[in-house]
Amino acid sequence: MGDERRGIPTRAPAINPDSEPFWAATADGRLTLQRCAACGAVVWWPKAICPACQSFDLAWFDATGRGTVYSYTVVHRAPGSWGRAAPYVLAYVELEEGPRLMTNIVDSDPDAVTIDAPVRVVWHDTGEGNALPRFTLAD
After folding, report:
1. 75 in helix, strand or coil?
2. pTM metric for this prediction
């Protein structure tokens, strides 16, 4: 079931061959993304083929782990273990490298979260040899 010390459920992800390098890097506290050598697009969610130009020439690189809140909502009611974590913030974070990923804003007052707020990655251990990237408001 994972590490729920911060209140938000932290379950191990389903891993496939395309996403395995990403999840392996999380064990080292690294946020990795793919970049297409053919067109330069930065890709999120891990894929075998560039969604911009259909090239197979994707390479992994370490991201900065910094970004801004693109959109968010504060969840006050949810079923099961998520309900016990409420209120919590579900957000899209736009990374400095460009892609947006859906995540949670943690270790921050939900009322302090705003659009364009700077954030940095933090890691929630799943207990399965990898970690979930979540974000906290940057100082």
Report:
1. strand
2. 0.90
